[in-house]
Amino acid sequence: MRWRLTRTALAGLALLAWTTAAAGQSAAARWPGPRTSDGQPDIQGHWEAGPGANNAGHSLEEGCCDAEHNRMQNRAAENIGLRRQIIVEPKNGRIPFQPWAAATRREHLVNLDAPTELQHIEPEDRCSLQGVPRSNLRGPMQILQTPGQVVILYEWVHAFRVIPVDGRPHAPKGSALWQGDARGRWEGNTLVVETTNFRHDPAGYNKQPWIDSHGTFYTDALRVVERWRVVDAGRIDYEATIDDPKVFTQPWTIAYEIVRLRQQAYEFLEEACWEGVSVRRRLDAGRQAVTAGKTRVHSHNEQ
């Protein structure tokens, strides 16, 4: 009898554990939040990447930055690195570059530390559009919804994305856009967005968006699939899988929370950044470093 009771108890505990896990996984699917007039889950409002994604836009592998960098930008001294691993696949948290691509990225990082030409400077610092998925890591965003589409406005350089969710096909191949050509669909309370047709620079891979500030580039084969899983009125679990078989050895995935801004009546402020912003001092410093033979790979690991 004792064995029967023990076995029954263990079975009950296993069932309870499975039920609890399943409940957590399906919480978003059962979220009974408001809907738009055409039946979309209503996620309108102002959002931003959660604290766990701090610094990821600079480097998805290392975060940002070092003490001197923080001092110059009036950042908190302790705001260094990543709060948690953002790259969830592969498990080691590293971007799976092919050998040639790793060498090209290393060249970008050397040029980034001592730029001598305009294209050596990171596209973000030239006030270019950020592309996908990086735009979602660069400050506040506002989500708007109208019948058949989701619109995302970004505070940074007044960027925007229009994501049709009405089943229309992608634009013809060759319609290269800095933010890519997005098409979405709702799977329950998850907005799935596939983006292709990204602008790319086949000569140096630097007259185009980078996936982060650390020279992570792509080719015309890039395909990004985002999953915006609505958990509740104040949280979205975000995931993006990046696939470019010309650059990476496998698709890789980032994941983090996006949270609703708490400020009441939040309004965007103007980001005074424009294409052609002066970078002369950085170029002068870079040329001096190259002349003096003081070049290195840009990194924060030495801190």
Biggest pleated sheet: 10 strands, antiparallel
Secondary-structure-derived class: alpha+beta
**Poorly predicted residue ranges:** 1-25
How far is the N terminus from the C terminus? 63 Å
**Radius of gyration, in angstroms, nearest whole number:** 22 Å
Kindly report the average pLDDT value: 83
Counted by DSSP, the helix tally is 4
What are the secondary-structure elements, in order, as H or E? HEHEHEEEEEEEEH
Number of strands: 10
Quaternary organisation of the protein chains: single chain
The rough form would be described as globular
* Share of residues in strands: 15-25%
Percent range of helical residues: 10-25%
Top keywords for this entry?
303 residues, alpha+beta, 10-stranded antiparallel sheet, 10 strands, globular, disordered N terminus
Protein architecture, described:
There is one protein chain. This protein is α+β, with helices and mostly antiparallel strands and 303 residues long. The chain has a domain at 95-291. It is 19% helix and 22% strand. The protein contains 4 helices and 10 strands. The protein has helices spanning 2-25, 67-72, 99-113, 280-291; strands spanning 45-49, 87-89, 141-146, 149-154, 160-164, 181-187, 190-196, 223-232, 235-243, 252-260. Strands 1, 2, 3, 4, 5, 6, 7, 8, 9 and 10 form a 10-stranded antiparallel sheet that branches. A hairpin with a 2-residue loop joins strand 3 and strand 4 (149-154). The longest helix has 24 residues, at 2-25.
